[in-house]
Design a protein that fits this description.
heterodimer; A: about 240 residues; alpha/beta; Rossmann fold; Arc Repressor Mutant, subunit A; 2 domains; 5-stranded parallel sheet; 4-stranded antiparallel sheet; 8 helices; 12 strands; B: about 270 residues; alpha+beta; Helix Hairpins; Heat Shock Protein 90; 5-stranded mixed sheet; 7 helices; about 55% helix; about 15% strand; extended
Amino acid sequence: MQNKQRILLVEDEEHLLEAIKLNLELEGYRVTTATDGKKALKVFKEERFNLIVLDVMIPEIDGFQVAETIRLQNSEVPIMFLTAKNSSEDRITGLKKGADDYLVKPFNLEELILRVSNLIRRGMKGDDLKELNSYTIGEKTIYFNSFELHHADGTVTSLTKKETMLLKLLIERRNEAVSREQILETVWNYDVYPSTRTIDNFILTFRKYFEPDQKHPIYFHSIRGVGYKFTDNQN
Amino acid sequence: MLITFEPDRKGMIIGEGLIFFLIFIVGAWHLKKHVRREHEINKQQQNFLLSITHELKSPLASVKLYIQTIQKRELDREQQQIFLSNSLKDIERLDYLVENVLLSTKLENRAYQLPKEVFDLTDLVETIVDRLQKNACKTQVIKYEYDGHFELNADKFAITNVVTNLIENAIKYSPPCAMILVKIKKEGSRLLFSVADHGEGIAAEEKKLIFNKFYRVGNESTRKTKGTGLGLYIVRTVLQKHNASIRVYDNEPSGSVFEVIFEDYAK
């Protein structure tokens, strides 16, 4: 899975470019390089990437402007600045331009690898979520775009928007505990603060829909003090 | 109003008013000039800070990454050798940068006297050309012409810096593998050392500014070439302390020629 991930590395220092590229390739990524801002934007238009590692002081168009231009076309691809500029003003500018991370030179190899891996994992989850149109639990299938639950006997139950969003979130993070904060941020977008009971009621409804035995759930679990977890080892 | 009350002193009042107005205009003009100059100096220092940050941290980052890569990975011997030799080049780059910063600080101290010795300038230039030739391009790019061996009584370290700065600049601003002509010739009592490149050349208005401290052409964030804006400042200052001068003119069909003139060099 990991070797399919593509990284665009933009760096004008030849030695640094060579060493970073080699390390990322040894970690299993496919790396495309560009040595100035103009080339970086050209390559970005032609190919699809899971992460962009971007130096700031580069010829032709500086890294901040490159990030800004990329963000106009694509708001999802993670961008990490890799730069000698380390003042808090520079960091703020970088983050304002839409970067997801900021690493200052000289950096540690381990730190670079970990940050790259985190950003790519986070980006992948967004992609999975977007591509998730349907999901089958037992003999029932959820269609996220039409907000419908199709039962084995052919009957259809309508799902509310919030139910669909919460199902999508839990399924996307299957086998992981999802905290109440993450649910609030994703499903309720912090607009309304539902009580614990509200989320519990959603979970109870899900159990009604999917669990063969509601008293002994195998799919939807509450984890005391943490949040909720959807378990599915079939998919 | 004053003129209405004192009509006899009209001339004096108008005269004093004019003088006051003139003083005010001259003062405002000086103030504006001063503010603009301060602004220029600030901008150049800001540029210097940006470029020195980049110039110091980039080679440091490469060396650190090369060493950590060798520690972490099972690399073959050939790959290790490449990484080590690249690290050495980065360390040389850092060393050169530190030397430039130290030399420019020393040169600013008026009391500082350059230690002079007699050495062969032709041989010194040849050594530098050989060293830079290896780094510049695999094909022959630096052509060296001289019409004899000339001894100079000067600070060898500082003159080495002048020659290196000029040839490195020529390499930096030339297209890959373009020819650079380095020449030493005698003209009467003067000794001329010149470096000619076929790069983009220097705009007329920039020619007088390039020897200023921290001055660099263009925007620091999107610069194609590396540097700190100290090189040519050091060149000019060292030469001034050696009764020598430097001028820059356009090369044909493109590029620039930097010509150093050692007056009465044999003294």
